[in-house]
Design goal:
The chain has about 400 residues and is α+β, with helices and mostly antiparallel strands. It contains 11 helices and 24 strands. Helix 6 packs antiparallel against helix 11. The termini are close together.
């Protein structure tokens, strides 16, 4: 920190303003044009609009206040505080709900400087979060007492100019990397769709049951838990993006429970698991023999000897099959693909040679997609690290 920088608390240089929710019973409160910002609106560096809007009368009749333009908003109560603390500046006068705090800067501190300053202290702020079962909180008094190094206003403006320019470049680079990542995945999905569109046009159509020796789901009874034993996975252990199983947060069941299961309820190499409840339609191919069991929200499709496991996996991943799942799923809160529906999927029957040819092409394209995805994800991580480094340099007087 440079000599001319002063150590102050946020309470010294900001006015803290809370929010509130106008009565939902008063319809006219919710017919205005004033943005009423809640955590779900905190998606950009600057907030100028929101999903909900309220009237001036709503502000007069509730705990919420009109926050001026060029204040800094911070989420202080939300489940999202488990991993990040959304921070944004206000692009116009607006109101906030009780899950946010507004920091209105005094003449001693520039708005953008305050925004970047708080962003630089993300790790410290996260360490201050009080974690509940589902909702986490930041205590306002702790934020008020936070000490900050404050340079003179001309130096603040110089630092803001450097950071804004650098972060604009980083944002552009991130947007390009994310677009390239989306394009890589879209290329695979497009080829997958075309391969199976051709199969549907040129092949005999049968039911999925015709290609499988068993189609079942997990045990419908609550499993007995034990300190050690066989992992028991739930639908939450299925990773949608990678279509793999994450065993890190599983509980275990006794070996005796696992051994008592019917053979077709025990997964083995070559089987394809398939989610059937909630996030339905996600296939996972088992490429090794692992001892584990699974809940009823996950289906198991065991291919017949003439059905290539990888071909079956790609078939269940295809948009043609997903459409049948989506059209036939029942329920509202948690839509479910019944075993009857799963077994009745209309699918093409193709020769072993055709299956192998499709698998070879899709495996190669999938590997290339994953390689590109890894490269782009590393680039995104590097850009985030650069941003964090620049913030550290800025607020330790190194810029």
């Amino acid at each position: 920190m440079k000599n001319e920088w002063q150590t102050r608390t946020l309470d010294d240089v900001c006015e803290f303003v809370g929010g509130g929710t106008p009565s939902k019973a008063v319809d006219r409160y919710w017919r205005g044009d004033i943005p009423w910002v809640s955590p779900k609106d905190m998606k950009f560096d600057t907030v100028s609009d929101s999903i909900d809007h309220i009237s001036k009368e709503a502000i007069d009749g509730s705990a919420t206040s009109l926050i001026p333009k060029n204040a800094v908003l911070m989420v202080v109560r939300s489940g999202i505080l488990a991993r990040t603390i959304p921070i944004a500046t206000t692009g116009r006068p607006l109101a906030i709900n009780q899950d946010l705090k507004a920091l209105c800067p005094s003449r001693e501190i520039e708005t953008r400087f305050l925004y970047h300053l708080l962003s630089s202290k993300m790790d410290l702020l996260l360490s201050m979060v009080s974690r509940g079962a589902t909702v986490h909180r930041l205590v306002t008094d702790q934020i008020r007492a936070l000490e900050v190094a404050l340079p003179p206003l001309p130096e603040q403006n110089r630092i803001v100019g450097i950071l804004d320019e650098a972060f604009a470049g980083i944002a552009t680079a991130k947007a390009n990397a994310e677009m390239n990542l989306q394009n890589a995945r879209a290329l695979f999905e497009s080829y997958l769709q075309s391969v199976f569109a051709r199969a549907w046009r040129t092949s005999e159509l049968v039911t999925l049951s015709d290609l499988a020796s068993d189609i079942t789901d997990g045990d419908h009874m609550p499993p007995p838990k034990s300190a050690t034993g066989v992992p028991f996975i739930t639908i939450g252990n299925i990773v949608k993006e990678t279509r793999d199983i994450d065993f890190t947060n599983t509980f275990t069941v006794p070996h005796a429970y696992f051994k008592a299961l019917k053979p077709y309820k025990k997964p083995k190499k070559g089987d394809v698991l398939y989610t059937v409840t909630g996030s339905f339609g996600i296939p996972v191919i088992l490429r090794a023999n692992l001892e584990f069991c699974f809940q009823r929200h996950i289906g198991l499709v065991r291919p017949k000897p003439e059905t290539n496991s990888s071909w079956l996996y790609y078939l269940l991943l295809s948009p043609q099959v997903f459409k049948q799942a989506n059209d036939g799923a029942t329920g509202t809160a948690q839509r479910t693909v019944s075993l009857k529906l799963l077994r009745s999927y209309e699918v093409p029957r193709v020769s072993s040679e055709q299956q192998q040819a499709v698998v070879a092409k899709l495996d190669a394209l999938s590997a290339e997609t994953q390689r590109l995805a890894s490269a782009y994800e590393r680039k995104l991580a590097a850009l985030e690290a650069l941003k964090k480094s620049l913030l550290h340099q800025a607020f330790t007087g190194q810029l």
